Amino acid sequence: MTNTTSTTEPVLGGAAGAAAPAPDVTGATGRTRASRPNGRNERDGRTGRKRRRAAWGVMSTREKVLRYVLLVVVLFITIGPFLWQLSTSLKGTGEDIYTANPSFIPTQPTFGNYLRVGEAIPVFGYIGNSLVVAAIDVLGNIVFATLAGFALARLQWRFRKAVLGLFLATLVLPGEATIISQFVTVKDLGLADSLVGVALPGMIAALNVLLMFNAFRQIPEEIDQAAVMDGANALQRLRYISLPAVQGTIAVIAIFSFIGAWDDFLWPLIVLQSPDKLTLTVGLQYLQGTFATDQRMIAAGTMIAFIPIAVIFSILQRFFFKGVEEGGVKG
Asked: Are 69 and 84 in contact (CB under 8 A)?
């Protein structure tokens, strides 16, 4: 006889030799889906529509209209006074600029007002003085702010955090709070009534140091560590690794320093006494006092002072926006 061995294991809780029925996965899944045929799908549909509306970059028509209206208002507030000054500087003497309904476009355009500014004051001498002060401030901020920012961000030394806190604290103080001490210091150094004395306090600004500190901090530390292992010292790391990565921020500092030195009025007015050493912003006040009724000439002088700023910004515009990206994106 042939012995037959059963391979069926007894199931706990059931009769011996009876196999447990396999779970109906398909049926259960079908019943689960069938039990809620419409609820979740409908919610998913509504959620999908809401997600499509809230997608990045997708705006409704009303949002677009509101944004364009706000942009037009901001543009009018910022560009409007400049365009009005330009229009006034080009108007001839036969046009009434004080009428109740002034014309924005000159009916008798002329450049005679600009020539009269050159005849009334030594405008080119004032421009030269302002350029000297601006060049000293730009060069000083690029060099010293870069070195200070690199030392704060990439070097390890005692009291580094305390010095960084002092730079942050100086941003709270207004310039008028320290202007007397600055004047006493410049006078004791024998630099009063000189262009160097005008440029000296602005050769390094705390804000520019913090901008360079933030730019250097975006560079990954692994790069510096690899350079140190290769034998590079601090100056070599600054020259070959850090400086090429922060060119945009250096352009931002150059623009800010130039605008600050070019537009400064109070400090040059305090330091300078000789008429031939006045900067352009101070020298233009002679137009305000001598030709107070001729607003055309004053507007022409204002536009002359604006031209160098527009030229500098147009040259460094590409690097300026690159520097803004460097400060906003961590590398």
From this structure: no
